[in-house]
Amino acid sequence: MSVTAHSWSESRAPYALGNSVRTYVWELPVRVSHWFIFLSVAVLSVTGYYMHNPFLVVRSRTAYVMGTMRFIHLVAASVFISAFLLRIYWFFVGNEWSGWRAFVPIHREQWRGMGRMVSYYTFFRKNIAHYVGHNALAASTYMLMFTLMFFEILTGLALFSYTVSSRVLSFFIGWLPHLIDISHLRLFHFCIMFVFFIFVIHHVYSAVLVSWEERNALVESMFTGYKFVPEEELQKPSAKKRAN
Predict the structure, then answer these.
(1) What are the domain boundaries of the chain?
(2) What is the pTM of this model?
(3) Fewest CB atoms less than 10 Å from the CB: which of 83, 102, 178, 232?
(4) What is the rounded CA–CA span in Å between residue 232 and residue 19?
(5) Are 34 and 222 spatial neighbours (Cβ–Cβ below 8 Å)?
(6) CA-CA distances (angstroms) from residue 223 to 31, 108, 116, 160, 199?
(7) Per residue in 108-156, pLDDT tens?
């Protein structure tokens, strides 16, 4: 299926003048893990901040706000870990745009792509570079965020194991509070939340910007899985193999 892309400006998006092909890029597990990670992080941030600094004052003697917040935090953490594990699994079984090779800059072209995107964001490049999946700079940033998520999970489980008696948790993560002081683990766990805040702000901004510049349904693709890709991009051997 081929459609004509609507260009915003010939000088700003020259590649959008040709025919674009509706291509299935983001598979269902990628989209499901994406939204469950987002929603769980939002809940974890609210409840986690409350546990750090209670901002609700309840005068009822039967109120158990801290306990309720902690329970919600644990449920959201379980969802977050499950979504994270699903996404990690899909790094190894997903298509070429969701596989780990697309996120780790192991090829020279990926480093060049990062340079092109840095030039675009710093206004040294007029036209945005086009990619079927994530651009190289975004992919490397996501890999960094996945790494931070991993450490957030480790520190969270370590804090949880410190307060409960669980042989399973103690076996897998109980060594961490003995290696790093529990107060430092708690501070590190709390500070990563603010890194997530900064990332979400830039992520939304850049996603809307690129979607508008390329006219490729980037934002919509996280719901449908489909993007509009210029035909010349799909002529590349790896992309053509997946598109067919």
Answers:
(1) 94-225
(2) 0.83
(3) 178
(4) 9
(5) yes
(6) 7, 32, 28, 34, 20
(7) 988 998 999 999 888 888 888 778 889 899 999 999 999 999 999 999 9
